[in-house]
Design a protein that fits this description.
Layout (H helix, E strand, L loop, with lengths): L13 H10 L5 E5 L13 E10 L3 H4 L1 H5 L22 H10 L8 H11 L4 H9 L2 H8 L20 E10 L2 E5 L7 E5 L2 H4 L3 H22 L8 E7 L1 H25 L5 H42 L3 H14 L2 H10 L1
Antiparallel strand pairs: 1-6, 2-3, 2-6, 3-4, 4-5
Length: 341
């Protein structure tokens, strides 16, 4: 096997992750970048899990409080929670994504990941990691987002150290919050969701579990003691257009009922003004929801364009342009202008 098991590094970006998930056959999912630890999760709709990217250091695992939590016996862990050991370093982005997707039965995984989940669920974490690293389909989708190398610098020593970054996932599972880190021995139970919230609505529980996860993420960040500022946080959510369209359908039905009621009333009756006011409120909400759908469509379209640019190899075009400028005698001037800008 070649170094890194033929898995490339991919960019930590919501557009990349959203299209990667879609290309694996999963439907109704999008990825949102979280710009603040104080993000209002209620605005994100249904959140299935959180992905956290941070700088990895060799002594982190042994010194972290997570490692102490990690000493849970197998009897303390849910049997149906799917945890995979990380076998290939560069696969950790896709592994973090899969750790969320495979542990939520509400998600439509599609035939490829359904088969993958069925195959690995009875295996050990180490064997699950091996199956993932050798999955041609998943690896092909992952590698389709490889960053194009414009210039290969052969003068850089292969021994030169580079910062390593690592992805981990946070998920709600059986009224607890778990951290799934493929470099650990098993799943880490961060904390239980308080009983007062487990009896509440799904929305209340969603907000509570995300608060538990964010608190742990803050601890990880604080462990760096201001020596590191490069972190990235993303949430895997239900496609927000689904919720918007569902609400629009409800509004359409409500408008029909109100219109029928309005038509049955005589002109000037007391209820007329109230019904007309409700109709206007619903129409205003419907228009706002449609604006939100349009915004999401534009955002996903921009993701598609950016991903196409990421995948395209611009080297031949740049080479031909440089050659044309050289032949016309304009290359030197172009270089000077570029340096000034």
């Amino acid at each position: 096997m070649e170094e890194h098991g033929n898995w490339c590094l991919i960019e930590s970006d919501p557009g990349v992750f959203t299209e990667l998930i879609s290309n694996m056959g999963v439907q109704g999912i999008q990825v949102e970048e979280l710009w603040s630890l104080d993000t209002d999760f209620s605005e994100l709709g249904t959140v299935y899990g959180i992905i956290f990217l941070f700088k990895w250091e060799a002594n982190q695992s042994s010194n972290s409080s997570d490692s102490q939590r990690n000493n849970l016996s197998n009897n303390d862990l849910p049997e149906d929670l799917i945890f995979m050991k990380q076998i290939v370093n560069n696969a950790c982005a896709t592994q973090a994504i899969l750790s969320i997707l495979l542990n939520n039965n509400e998600i439509n995984l599609g035939p490829e990941l359904d088969n993958f989940k069925d195959f690995i669920k009875s295996l050990t974490p180490e064997l699950r990691g091996m199956v993932l690293s050798n999955s041609e389909t998943i690896r092909s989708v992952h590698n389709s987002f490889a960053r194009q190398a414009l210039i290969i610098n052969e003068s850089v020593s292969s021994n030169e150290s580079e910062d390593l970054f690592h992805f981990v996932s946070y998920i709600p599972f059986n009224n607890s919050v778990y951290k799934l880190d493929g470099l650990q021995h098993g799943p880490i139970r961060i904390n239980d969701i308080p009983e007062s919230h487990t009896k509440n609505s799904g929305k209340a529980r969603e907000l509570e579990w995300s608060e538990v996860a964010i608190e742990n993420i803050k601890q990880v960040i604080n462990n760096f003691k201001d020596k590191e500022i490069r972190f990235n946080l993303m949430a895997i959510t239900k496609d927000r257009r689904i919720g918007y369209n569902t609400r629009i359908d409800q509004i359409k039905n409500d408008l029909k009922l109100l219109q029928k009621k309005l038509e049955s009333l005589k002109l000037g009756e007391d209820d007329t003004e109230s019904i007309e006011k409700n109709i206007n409120i619903l129409i205003s909400e419907k228009n706002e929801l449609q604006n939100q759908i349009n915004y999401q469509n534009e955002k996903l379209h921009s993701y598609s364009i950016e991903n196409a640019r990421r995948k395209h190899n611009f080297v031949p075009m740049i080479k031909m342009l440089a050659e044309a400028l050289a032949k016309s005698g304009n290359l030197e001037n172009a270089i000077k202008k570029a340096r000034k800008s």
